[in-house]
């Protein structure tokens, strides 16, 4: 097995509650549904990660929690520096991922799209709860597949 990376953008969250700071916005009902759908699809396709790095925001943590019970035993690490992270904060996770393993990043845009483009050259649109599977071969990262909840319904 090659080194693989799953880039997952957080699911849809509440936007219009001005009493909340951005970091503390929870998922809305669509986000809860979509994160469950995408989690089941990730598992069904055999993409199950060995390790998950997640932004410290409430919506990314809730996205992780709603992926499903198949993800409960996976090693997880919440990282403050991933919150609305620029590419420079995400690349070290990719670069330090272990050989013959699958690492997942649950983050935000534009960082998710920038990571996808900078590693593979593909400019994929990562709507909420979209997941991209990347695989490394001979030092080059390739986009294997990009799945979106709206395409699964």
Structure characteristics:
Rossmann fold, alpha/beta, 153 residues
Describe this structure in words.
This protein is of the alpha/beta class and 153 residues long. The chain has a single domain (4-152), classed as Rossmann fold (3-Layer(aba) Sandwich). Helix content is 31%, strand content 24%. It is built from five helices and six strands. The chain has a six-stranded mixed sheet with strand order 3-2-4-1-5-6, with helices on both faces. The model has no long low-confidence stretch (mean pLDDT 94).
> H/E order of the elements?
EHEHEHEHEEH
Backbone structural class = alpha/beta
Q: How far is the N terminus from the C terminus?
A: 30 Å
CATH class: Alpha Beta
Can I get a quick summary?
With 153 residues, this protein is α/β, with parallel strands linked by helices. 31% of the residues lie in helices and 24% in strands.
Compile the SSE list and pairings.
Layout: E1 4-9, H1 29-44, E2 51-55, H2 58-65, E3 75-79, H3 87-95, E4 102-107, H4 111-120, E5 131-137, E6 140-147, H5 149-152
Parallel strand pairs: 1-4, 2-3, 2-4
Antiparallel strand pairs: 1-5, 5-6
């Amino acid at each position: 097995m090659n080194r693989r990376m799953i880039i997952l953008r957080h699911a849809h969250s509440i936007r219009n509650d001005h009493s909340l700071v951005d970091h503390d916005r929870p998922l809305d009902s669509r986000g809860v549904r979509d994160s469950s759908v995408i989690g089941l699809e990730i598992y069904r396709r055999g993409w199950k990660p060995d390790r998950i790095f997640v932004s410290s925001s409430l919506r990314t943590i809730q996205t992780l929690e709603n992926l499903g019970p198949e993800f409960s035993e996976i090693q997880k690490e919440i990282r403050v520096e991933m919150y609305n992270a620029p590419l420079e904060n995400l690349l070290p996770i990719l670069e330090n991922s272990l050989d013959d393993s699958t690492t997942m990043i649950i983050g935000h845009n534009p960082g998710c799209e920038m990571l996808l483009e900078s590693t593979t050259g593909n400019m994929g649109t990562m709507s909420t709860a979209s997941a991209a599977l990347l695989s490394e071969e001979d030092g080059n990262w390739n986009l294997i597949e990009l799945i979106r909840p709206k395409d699964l319904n």
